[in-house]
Amino acid sequence: MPVTYLQRGMPIRGCAEGRGGHRWSCIGYYRFLKEVCRPAVTGPFPTVDTLQRRLASAEAELDEYERLLSAPDAATREDYADLTRKYARTRELVAINREMQRLAQDIEEERELLEAEEDEGLRADLRRALEHDQEALEELVRRAKLMLVPEKPEDRRTAIVEIRAGAGGEESALFVADLFRMYARYAERRGWGTKLMDSHPTSLGGYKQVVFAVEGEDAFGRLRFESGVHRVQRVPETEAQGRIHTSTATVAVLPEAEDVELELSPEELRFETYRAGGPGGQHMQKNETAVRVTHIPTGITVGCQDERSQHRNREQALRLLRARLWDLQERERAASVQEERRSQIGTGDRSEKIRTYNYPQSRVTDHRIGFTVHQLEQIMDGEMEYLIEPLLEAEVEKLLEV
């Protein structure tokens, strides 16, 4: 028989004290969460179990981080930056837990008052207050669950995004341009920077391929779900009969590898220069400013042509090559770790169809989690939280199952 959260409840510090003077017991508090927050706390009991254990341990962890950071030699520690990040994250989790306890107490009292009140005007006010507090509590439970996702060092790194046209000809190239703009607008909304690394534009304003870096806090952590095949269904601008066409584009998101993690031996690299194509002026088109680099042991080849100097294109090409080699190593490592693969959302394979953008219905569907939202225009304008937040929540659920 499985052990329930009531059987293995853990005491927590800082339980909320109600206006009536009594304090929440651990068991009563989490029984209340399970009952009131059913829309937010989805899945079987293990979800509530894990949330309970994590919230229960957060207070003790916060005390430990405060002790370590208040030490005289704290700033000289090698892990000081990592320690401060963990402290900030744990402090936020503790604050969420305390606010959840306060709301839970208010909801319980509002229920008691509603049951005893006879005046219809006051009952209506109590119902509104109760509904407001329940929604606020559900949102806090959702935020607490998202914070259960283990932080990985690469999540905080710059993301290198490659988008390639797939099936669909020129319409596919135009879709690549739309995706490029979507990610650039999302980065802008989050205060991140974008840096174009390589592009192959078409005559109608699309791209056969575009590579760019997204620089900012947690850039790779937020964009890592985007790798895979994106499908668009719409009437192309070049379609005279008004028929809906289906086209595809492939997206790969890589964390930027640091020099200390991945050393490139000169004898393993082959450099070639060539004239850049597309816009850029006579200097770029008449001189061999574009650079192509081949990693001989793996056969991986990258090229960059968007900078005006050969030296800068060489730097950008090496930056992209390091990211691809790091990605190759990580994929080989992950392939041998079955537990890690079971906890992933989707396979992570770039050949996997992950999302469909249906313009006639203003619909976006993520096939990995069976999620659909009718906010296509907003998403294409960079409001990607409609898609990223559900993916993060689904990852939490999978991690808890494992």
Task: Please explain how this structure is put together.
- The chain is an alpha+beta fold.
- It contains eleven helices and eleven strands.
- The protein has helices at residues 26-36, 45-69, 80-116, 120-146, 170-189, 219-223, 281-286, 310-335, 338-342, 376-380, 385-401, and strands at residues 159-165, 193-201, 207-215, 228-234, 245-255, 269-274, 290-295, 300-304, 353-358, 363-366, 371-373.
- The strands form two sheets. The protein has an eight-stranded mixed sheet with strand order 2-3-1-5-4-9-10-11, sandwiched between helices. Strands 6-7-8 form a three-stranded antiparallel sheet, with helices on one face.
- A hairpin with a 4-residue loop joins strand 10 (363-366) and strand 11.
- Helix 3 (80-116) runs antiparallel to helix 4.
- The radius of gyration is 26 Å and the shape is flat.
- Residues 1-27, 38-47, 280-285 and 337-344 have low confidence and may be disordered.
- Total of DSSP H or I helical runs spanning 4+ residues: 11
Strand order of the largest sheet: 2-3-1-5-4-9-10-11
Largest sheet: 8 strands, mixed
Q: Choose one word for the global shape.
A: flat
- The overall number of domains is 3
- Give the fraction of residues assigned to helices: 40-55%
- Write the CATH fold name of the largest domain: Alpha-Beta Plaits
- Assembly level: single chain
> What is the CATH C level class of the largest domain, in words?
Alpha Beta
